[in-house]
Amino acid sequence: MKNLLNTLTFAFLMFTSLSSFAKPGNPFKNATTTTLIDSYIQATSLGDTKYSEYLFAEDFKHIQSSNKKTKQYNKKQILTFLKKQEGYIMNCEASHKIIEQNSSYSIAKVKMVFPNFTRIDYVTLSNQDDAWVITQVATSYENSKL
Q1: Nearest residue to 53 via CA among 71, 40, 38
Q2: Torsion of CA 64, 141, 125, 60, to 10 degrees
Q3: Which of 34, 74, 136, 146 is the most buried (most CB within 10 A)?
Q4: Domain boundaries of the chain, sorted by first residue
Q5: What is the pLDDT of residues 20-56, one digit of tens each?
Q6: CA separation, residue 143 to residues 36, 115, 119 (Å)
Q7: What is the DSSP letter of 46?
Q8: Which residues are paired to 73 by β-bridges?
Q9: If we measure between CA atoms, which residue out of 83, 107, 105, 109 comes closest to residue 94?
Q10: CA–CA separation, 84 vs 79, rounded Å?
Q11: How far is residue 92's CA from residue 42's CA, in Å, rounded to a whole number?
């Protein structure tokens, strides 16, 4: 009986020790596109970057156009920017609309209305490995002097 108790105790300790080193899974594994867009808005306009590393595909592209200038950013650059903006709440009203969606692809329009201009993000999502990820964001500005 003592050997059985020792064995069970050892097995329990091994299980809890090994599981504490396990890498956490993707929190968006079973999320909908709407959940992902909401998380994108929280990261970009509300400074909540907790799960932003899971939002974007590895080959993510952000294309930003303003006054005839176009800039392009990758996942690493966007995550660095978002981490710097952590906790910063933008003075805007944000909303979104799913434009097109099927089982593997989706496009959403995210609108952020600031006092002097409007930022519009066209967000492309793809269902990869049974989880939605953002593959591209194209940003433009209305009524902007940027």
Answers
A1: 40
A2: 10
A3: 136
A4: 51-146
A5: 455 567 788 888 999 999 999 999 999 888 888 899 9
A6: 28, 10, 9
A7: S
A8: 62
A9: 109
A10: 9
A11: 12
Per-position DSSP letters for 60-97, written without gaps between them? EEEEEEETTEEEEEEHHHHHHHHHHTTTPPPS-EEEEE
Length of the chain (residues): 146
The predicted structure's pLDDT at residue 82: 92
Q: What is the mean pLDDT of residues 57-61?
A: 95
One-letter amino acid identity for 82?
Answer: L
Please answer whether residues 45 and 89 qualify as being in contact, where contact means their C-beta atoms are separated by less than 8 angstroms.
Answer: yes
CATH code given to domain 51-146: 3.10.450.50
Return d(Cα 34, Cα 42) in angstroms, integer: 12
Phi then psi dihedrals of residue 73, to 5 deg = -130, 155
